[in-house]
Task: inverse folding
């Protein structure tokens, strides 16, 4: 079926790719429709920088390549890029005042790979400052609004974070897909809040080169899309060894789309008992049980498993991530790029620049990180956390001796209203309770939209897989997606409903 | 563990972040809450457990100690708030 102009922004990447290949659609037409949608989505504040002119140039070049018979895997597909990826000549802010005016003179590996496959850049999406947050409320460029609302309630809701702009843009049909980064849940939690698919690949699967660093042992780029197939297509384009990232792993990238066989018969799915938490809303528990039933009916074998150190994952994360952040963010000193606030001497210039340039949450984490790494506390906090991290990885290694994937909820709540949970950092940190353990273990995880809450808001189910086994994770995710049949749309749709 | 105003001021000094006097008490409260929450790790016996250095079991790759890039000082300093003669310019540091 040939798409009609008004429905262009509603296409999945796979559908758009097929229409482009058949010649019933040009990259230029598709990109023009998406640019209009990006403009219509401005009330959400999902983009920090729109790159409409560049998008049109890229689309025309894409159409020319296709005419010349040289189409890539994402040829002509308009995408949104989290503003944590360095893009040559295009402002890159990390959602922070301290990167004022910074235009990278180089391109991140992951975005370069997307462009090499023919993708078109729509713009740079909003995020929590330096990716530190679960609500997108900490951005210097203002909060992002979720395109979802509770029916009959006009209060804006958060899109989740830190990849909140990317998730809101994809859910609102302002982009066919987007890339984000996930440190403790920053792709998966906003995907769940916005009713889309979000995948964190295995640590080392996608290059971190040119990604503004938050916590280097945890950060990992990944896709946010409206279908599991789209996530597979995008991951295939993003993944691969990069000599410029010494933690990027040199292992073959399988054909992820081919892995979507829909056949999970005989696969063993683990259900970790430690993820049944007091205070989790009954509807999330119920959705989890529903997910178990869906996989059982599809022929998977369900196994109860134990991940005994799960409850220690969050406090471990909140030592390791701030410690690495305090070290990574030491580079923002007002000397080589970004904001400079003058001082009487060099030290005062550093202090003034960092005092004014960092927001409250970033300061809090840099201070915690500095404290846990300081003399006298290094062993008690930082080394202790690294030991517990080993135990958490061991839990997963043991579990994956008997199961092929693990099913959990993505987040312990539906999206909350802007401003809620802001006065208690720990309440905010608890958003990532189900996603952080896999991050600490470096494992791939995906969130699949699986249902609506009683308030009419999306809820996600989360799958965790073995290291470098994204193919199985995507295969199981595809079966969940099929069974859930999630087709709800947000109240705000930029491309017209 | 609780941290007081003086400790916060000291950490802020180490982190080279100006924190106004009036914010020290509030920050001491927030950091103390976070630190006492992460304190729960001390319940765990980690005797003999090796601290994780990397989640991916790979040897750190090596490369030849050779210049592979460079030769464009203008590009390197193009984002500098202040520069002079292809150098980053900063306030005088020599007494």
Result:
């Amino acid at each position: 079926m040939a798409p009609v102009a008004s429905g262009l922004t509603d296409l999945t990447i796979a559908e758009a790719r097929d229409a482009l290949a058949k010649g019933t659609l040009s990259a230029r037409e598709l990109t023009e429709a998406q640019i209009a949608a990006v403009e219509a989505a401005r009330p959400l504040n999902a983009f920090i920088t729109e790159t409409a002119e560049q998008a049109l140039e890229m689309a025309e070049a894409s159409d020319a390549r296709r005419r010349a018979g040289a189409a890539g895997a994402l040829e002509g597909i308009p995408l949104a890029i989290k503003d944590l990826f360095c893009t040559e000549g295009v402002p890159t802010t990390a959602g922070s005042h301290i990167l004022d005016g910074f235009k990278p003179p180089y391109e991140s590996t992951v975005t370069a790979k997307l462009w090499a496959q023919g993708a078109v850049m729509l713009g740079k999406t909003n995020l929590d400052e330096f990716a530190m947050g679960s609500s997108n409320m900490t951005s210097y460029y203002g909060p992002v609004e979720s395109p979802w609302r509770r029916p009959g309630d006009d209060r804006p809701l958060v899109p989740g974070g830190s990849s909140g702009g990317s998730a809101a843009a994809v859910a609102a049909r302002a982009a066919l897909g987007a890339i984000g980064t996930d440190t403790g849940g920053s792709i998966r939690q906003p995907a769940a809040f916005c009713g889309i698919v979000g995948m964190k690949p295995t640590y080392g699967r996608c290059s971190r080169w040119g990604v503004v660093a938050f916590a280097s042992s945890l950060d990992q780029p990944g896709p946010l899309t409206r279908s599991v197939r789209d996530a597979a297509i995008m991951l295939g384009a993003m993944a691969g060894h990069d000599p410029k990232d010494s933690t990027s792993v040199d292992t073959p990238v399988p054909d992820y789309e081919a892995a979507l066989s829909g056949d999970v018969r005989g696969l063993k799915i683990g259900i970790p008992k430690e993820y049944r938490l007091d205070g989790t809303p009954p509807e999330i528990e119920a959705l989890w049980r529903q997910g178990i039933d869906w996989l059982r009916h599809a022929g998977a074998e369900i196994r109860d498993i134990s991940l005994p150190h799960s409850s220690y994952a969050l406090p471990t994360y909140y030592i390791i991530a701030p410690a690495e952040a305090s070290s990574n963010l030491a580079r923002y000193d007002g000397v080589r790029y970004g904001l400079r606030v003058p001082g009487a001497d060099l030290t005062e210039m550093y202090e003034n620049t960092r005092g004014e340039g960092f927001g409250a949450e970033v300061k809090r984490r840099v201070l915690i990180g500095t404290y846990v790494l300081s003399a006298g506390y290094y062993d008690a906090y930082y080394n202790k956390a690294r030991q517990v991290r080993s135990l958490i990885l061991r839990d997963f290694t043991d579990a994956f001796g008997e199961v092929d994937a693990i099913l959990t909820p993505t987040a312990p709540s539906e999206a909350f209203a802007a401003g809620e949970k802001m006065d208690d950092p720990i309440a905010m940190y608890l958003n990532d309770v189900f996603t952080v353990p896999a991050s600490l273990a470096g494992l791939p995880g995906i969130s699949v939209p699986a249902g609506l809450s009683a308030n009419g808001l999306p809820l996600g189910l989360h799958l965790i897989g073995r290291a470098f086994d994204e193919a199985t994770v995507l295969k199981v995710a595809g079966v969940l997606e099929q069974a859930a049949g999630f087709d709800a749309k947000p109240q705000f749709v930029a491309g017209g409903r | 563990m609780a941290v007081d105003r003086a400790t916060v001021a000291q950490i802020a000094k180490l982190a080279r972040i100006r924190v106004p006097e009036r914010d020290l008490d509030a920050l001491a409260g927030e950091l103390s809450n976070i630190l006492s929450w992460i304190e729960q790790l001390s319940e765990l016996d980690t005797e003999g457990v090796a601290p994780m250095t990397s989640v991916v079991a790979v040897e750190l790759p090596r490369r030849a100690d050779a210049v592979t890039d460079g030769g464009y000082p203008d590009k390197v300093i193009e984002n500098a708030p202040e520069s002079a003669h292809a150098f980053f310019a900063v306030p005088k540091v020599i007494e």
Q: What stands out?
A: The longest strand of chain A covers residues 445-452. Chain A has 15 helices and eleven strands.
